[in-house]
Amino acid sequence: MPYITPNLRLLFSSSSSSYSLLFPPKPSFSLFSRPTNTRHSLLTILSSSSSSKRHRSSSFTQQNQKKQSSLIINRRSESTFPKRAPMEESVKESSSSFGFNKRRAEGRDGVDKPKKNPQLKTRRLNPTNTISYVQILGTGMDTQDTSPSVLLFFDKQRFIFNAGEGLQRFCTEHKIKLSKIDHIFLSRVCSETAGGLPGLLLTLAGIGEEGMSVNIWGPSDFKYLVDAMKSFIPHAAMVHTHSFGPAPCSDVASLPDLTKLADPIVLIDNEVVKISAILLKPNSSEGSAAKPGEMSVIYVCELREIVGKFDPKKAAALGLRPGPKYRELQSGKSVKSDHQDTMVHPCDVMGPSVPGPVVLLVDCPTESHVLELLSIESLNRYYADDSSDVPECSRTVNCIIHLSPTSVTSTPDYLKWMKRFGTAQHIMAGHQMKNVEVPILQSSARIAARLNYVCPQLFPAPGFWSLQHPNNSTIDSSTSQGPISRLSECISAENLLKFTLRPHAHLGLDRTNIPSLVSPSRVMEELFSEIPSIVDAAQDVGHLWHGPRGTKEEIPSMRNNEIMTEEPWLDENQLPSCLENVRRDDLEIVLLGTGSSQPSKYRNVSSIHINLFAEGSLLLDCGEGTLGQLKRRYGVEGADNAVRNLRCIWISHIHADHHTGLARVLALRRDLLKGVPHEPLLVVGPGPLKRFLDAYQRLEDLDMQFLNCKYTKEASWKDFECDGDSNRDSMSPGSPVNNGDMNKNTESNLFTKGSRMQSFWNKPVDNSTAFPLLKSLKKVLSESGLETLISFPVVHCPQAFGIVLKAADRINSIGKVIPGWKIVYSGDTRPCTELVEASRGATVLIHEATFEDEMLEEAIAKNHSTTKEAIEAGSSAGVYRIILTHFSQRYPKIPVFDGKHMHKACIGFDMMSINLADLPVIPKALPYLKLLFKDDMPVDEELDDVDVMDAAGAV
């Protein structure tokens, strides 16, 4: 038996009685045990096909259990529970039926922590013996949802330009260590260029004991983004943010004419490189000043000149003795000869110098910016046709990376400007070029292709990875860029394309790191070779869908003559009444992200697309990269339609892995509906989210309205539905009814009397502000065929919620009333009675299952759930189907779970699309899906010890 700490024993003994009332005891089981009966069903054999591998993983875990438990307890005693034993406080101060970390739920878990002071890295730089290059990190060309990032690499220093959503996933995929980055520069400040910045800052802040920091640079409106991020990112993670240039303002007279600035703004000037910024604003001929988000930057990267080698023979011939004068000459100073009455200059004794390469990164987002670009005087020294009076100041530009969209780079004015740089290499990285239809995240795409082969019903073919012509590794510039193809030194960017800067002998393009394209047929060949039985498994899965619904389906016999018995749960075929005569265009649940904490190779962070087809759609949570996932699922055009048709976005809590993709989705919707009559999108979320959105909207308009989750609780809805004006008057601020009485029945059992959380739930609320928004939400729900959207509090952090969605009843062809389906999403939570009560009779419960069953202590400390707890919560509430999600990234491809208890449940995967009509079948497909991952093992906990949410703290 695994080692149980005394505190954990205390938890079991203290809460066992109340726990058993809610979850009746079940026979004990072993996570990795094999059935002793010699008669096996096909599903039993499939579900235990990876038993031996898991057993090895379990053995490894047990061998290190005491060590890891000790590490966990020590770590928590220093941070999460500095004054009490962790489990003891959970039991003594909770009236809930479950153990949980009360301090974390109240947002006090970081109060007594030693404050981190992330340090900037210090480097010893050598301009001579160094390797340097610029490299494209994601072109944005497969999903076109973000701006490309560019890496400027030196042996001892790294710089990144732009940090759009998905940067972490891309770097993880290609083993680029973001912990090595020293500086990040933004070419513009908007969701397109900076959407990945919050998650990156939190990741860096969570590394090691003290965390790591990075310098971040942006034009003056960068301060608006910093102010917005402060609502959920610790100050220590943002102490090294720098803005430059004149502040954006409404008074055009107070903004200097940037085109007349003779010198760029120098940001970095060290032994290896000088990085300068040239500001670019839209043309102000109409008398309007640059607004926040409109300022753009051209970055100039100039590598240092490498002086020639000192020749001692020449020095001796000129009458110099070895000594200090040799060093002075090498440092560029002239000296007097020791034996001759002459001055010796450095050029007399030094070999020819190697000029430093120059790279420009140009982001010219609109044609209005082009007009300003043509007149910027500080660029004159870099033009090949420069006729300035000081030619010695001119520099030859070797490479220009264009982040500008094709709609700009194809204009005659922009092409004319490009030609002024002579033979410079132009790399066109604008993300609006022709879609290449090749995934930049090939690991997750490979998994998606395999899942699609085994079960296309749950995993439709990705919307963008057609690869009909997989051998087309280069883009036809004549079709993708039009007139640009006439420039002799112009190519399209590709992922991981390099332009080598040092050593000078290798100056130029380097394509050796560009990922090779893999066709779907090659992926399938690898799968058949690795798992030969997968062909039969795919046929068996197909049989599940072709069998008659609502009846007992035949399970194909084993092809290896194994004697098969049927699992008892296969007889559980009674459909809930809401699924009677269900149509495939009623509802589809698409899991866009099923991982926790931070994006990984195989799983993005939390987001669920509720597709109501003709009635529109909703998003439940919107973690970083949600827009990219939508485009991978539906294709570029299909995702645009999905964003246009969004009716509401609901956010469970303020942790970054649940909301940092929100701005990008809202910005795209704003652009797609520009000029079209429409209503601002309703965003329902916790109070702290409003602080972020209000601050962010100073940077760019998101075209949304915010409604606090607390106004969508059941009690608030009942109050709203009461008779009109008299009730609304009675609920005005300061009225006796407005003292929180309506919330006591729902929330008072969350925490003990008098706790901070209870006082929060019961504090006065201003319903007069909420009623107009509730009226709008009611209208949206009605138009979408939904009856209710109810938020309910859960136990995770302050202001954490779950949600209930219920469809309106319908009438069938013979006049029978068919009840609407009911979906419950847990958000992040410990098991709690509020969640169980909200899930009563639900058609689907989507429940977080961050940890495997053996990690209960870790789940309690971080206020998450184990797989078993999630399943038991749904089972006790009479839920028809349970979908598990939000898995720790220590489980790269599939979490650890016990197949014996999955008769109502299914493991979620990214891009999994669950149609309402397929609910009866999904548990039966799970063992076949598991066969794909029979050799997968969890990552050692110590290798995955970065807790992004710990770094963020609870808000």
TrEMBL record:
InterPro entries: RibonucZ/Hydroxyglut_hydro, RNase_Z/BN, RNZ2-like, tRNase_Z_dom. Its main location: mitochondrion. Residues 140-196 form the tRNase Z endonuclease domain. The keyword Calcium applies. It holds the Pfam family Lactamase_B_4. GO terms for cellular component: mitochondrion. Its EC number is 3.1.26.11. Residues 47-125, 722-748 are annotated as: Disordered. It comes from the Eukaryota. GO terms for molecular function: 3'-tRNA processing endoribonuclease activity; metal ion binding. Keywords: Calcium, Endonuclease, Hydrolase, Magnesium, Manganese, Metal-binding, Mitochondrion, Nuclease, Transit peptide, tRNA processing, Zinc. Residues 60-72, 729-748 have a biased composition (Polar residues). Belongs to the RNase Z family. Homodimer. This is ribonuclease Z. It comes from Acer negundo.
